[in-house]
């Protein structure tokens, strides 16, 4: 009887064994890309530490939208004017403040290095990971595993993070330093 090379076990065939068991997770198709990017970032820099001045605020499962009255006229900051007694429509703050829901997170700022940009101690930042960082945008970045918020500078092959307070130094990168931009700041939430 002739022996065949077809069928049977082949070297290198089948699933590769890994040290840790795996699980299947179902996510909405619209969230897949943002989740994959986040997992890749975490794998690339697993030692990211949050400094005491930059406190993350975890996102919770979103309840049904809470519609808030939206007045049809603006308010004057100079001389007072009579206010209209009617509401033009209702708005959902998620729609107004968040562009890419699956890629957005919030952080609370501690410190004063960005005060000249209007970012003060205790402010909350809305950060969008889906926006490509560009020159002069304010970003949250991990520098050697430490998170910071700074203005992104990228010109003529030079990349640095600029403080917006003359009492704080800019971050200029040296050989061997690592920087990963986590997202672009889109909004600042202040308490008054």
Structure keywords:
single chain, 192 residues, mainly beta, 8-stranded antiparallel sheet, two-stranded antiparallel ribbon, 2 helices, 10 strands, flat
Tell me the layout of helices and strands.
Blueprint: H1 32-44, E1 54-57, E2 67-71, E3 87-92, H2 93-97, E4 104-109, E5 124-128, E6 138-143, E7 146-155, E8 158-162, E9 171-172, E10 179-189
Antiparallel strand pairs: 1-4, 2-3, 4-5, 5-10, 6-7, 6-10, 7-8, 8-9
Give a quick precis of the structure:
The chain is mostly beta strands and 192 residues long. The chain contains two helices and ten strands.
Descriptive account of the structure:
The protein is mainly β and 192 residues long. The protein contains two helices and ten strands, in the order αβββαβββββββ. 9% of the residues lie in helices and 31% in strands. A hairpin with an 8-residue loop joins strand 8 and strand 9 (171-172). It is flat.
In order across it, which strands form the biggest sheet? Answer: 1-4-5-10-6-7-8-9
Strand content bin: 25-35%
Distance between the termini: 89 Å
What is the 3D shape? flat
Overall pLDDT confidence: 76
Low-pLDDT parts are none
Oligomer: single chain
What's the alpha carbon Rg, rounded to whole Å? 24 Å
Share of helix among residues? under 10%
Order of helices and strands: HEEEHEEEEEEE
Largest sheet data: 8 strands, antiparallel
Quickly count the helices: 2
Q: What is the strand tally?
A: 10
Structural class: mainly beta
């Amino acid at each position: 009887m002739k022996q065949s090379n077809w069928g049977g076990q082949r070297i290198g065939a089948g699933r590769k064994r890994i040290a840790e068991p795996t699980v299947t997770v179902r996510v909405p198709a619209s969230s897949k890309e943002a989740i994959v990017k986040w997992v890749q970032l975490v794998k690339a820099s697993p030692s990211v530490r949050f400094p005491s001045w930059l406190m993350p605020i975890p996102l919770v499962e979103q309840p049904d939208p809470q519609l808030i009255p939206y007045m049809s006229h603006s308010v004057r900051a100079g001389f007072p004017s009579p206010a209209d007694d009617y509401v033009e429509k209702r708005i959902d703050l998620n729609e107004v403040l968040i562009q890419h829901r699956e890629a957005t997170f919030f952080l609370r700022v501690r410190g004063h290095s960005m005060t000249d940009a209007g970012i003060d101690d205790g402010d909350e930042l809305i950060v969008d990971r889906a926006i490509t960082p560009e020159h002069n945008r304010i970003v949250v970045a991990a520098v050697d595993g430490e998170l910071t918020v700074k203005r992104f500078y990228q010109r003529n092959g030079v990349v640095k993070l600029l403080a917006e307070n003359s009492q704080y130094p800019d971050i200029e990168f040296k050989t061997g330093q690592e920087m990963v931009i986590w997202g672009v700041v889109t909004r600042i939430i202040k308490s008054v």
